[in-house]
Amino acid sequence: MANIESATAQKLLQVFMQFRKAGWHDKKNRRYNPSEFKVLAAIEQGANKKQREMKVSEISQLLKVTPPTVTQIINTLEKDGLIERRIDPNDRRVVKIKLSPKGMEVARKAREAFTETLLGLIDYLGEEESEQLAELLSKVQQYFQESNR
């Protein structure tokens, strides 16, 4: 196993730190932060599965974050008119959440911008290196997932 003093470990550390600083994931949508986009995307994903409304607990499970974290983000998105809340008439303790028309548009534009960024990366790297990168990142994700058990 390599130690933190190894050249490879240092290079990996620098690259991971540079990704965070680069803000590559939110370059085209500076008004909303990545967490807000993740919640919008989760609700949009639920809508695409014919589940027009979602509960906070469903969103938190999908994103693997706590319900209070989701609630805080939803409060911000609601103030901006991107989501709508509705109390379930069958169980008044349950609040259902869906994208507003404005929220659908923002989510669509964010998805398009992110796709454009990824397509630009594929053009830059080429198809073969992009495929290799996807495989390596999948292995990295698997490593971190397994090491956190």
Describe what this molecule looks like in 3D:
There is one protein chain. The chain is mainly α. The chain has one domain (26-147): Winged helix-like DNA-binding domain superfamily/Winged helix DNA-binding domain (Arc Repressor Mutant, subunit A, Orthogonal Bundle), CATH 1.10.10. 66% of the residues lie in helices and 7% in strands. It contains six helices and two strands. It has helices spanning 7-22, 34-48, 56-63, 67-79, 101-125, 127-147, and strands at 83-87, 95-99. It has a two-stranded antiparallel ribbon. Helix 2 crosses helix 5 (101-125). The longest helix is centred in the C-terminal third of the chain and has 25 residues, at 101-125. It is elongated.
Brief descriptors of the model:
149 residues; mainly alpha; Arc Repressor Mutant, subunit A; two-stranded antiparallel sheet; 2 strands
Furnish the topology, listing elements before pairings.
Blueprint: H1 7-22, H2 34-48, H3 56-63, H4 67-79, E1 83-87, E2 95-99, H5 101-125, H6 127-147
Antiparallel strand pairs: 1-2
Q: In order across it, which strands form the biggest sheet?
A: 1-2
Domain module count: 1
Overall mean confidence score, pLDDT? 85
What's the end-to-end separation, in Å? 19 Å
Quick one: how many beta strands?
Answer: 2
In the CATH hierarchy, the architecture is Orthogonal Bundle
Radius of gyration computed on alpha carbons: 19 Å
Shape: elongated
Largest sheet: 2 strands, antiparallel
**What structural category do the secondary elements indicate?**
mainly alpha
What would CATH call the homologous superfamily?
Winged helix-like DNA-binding domain superfamily/Winged helix DNA-binding domain
Strand % is 5-15%
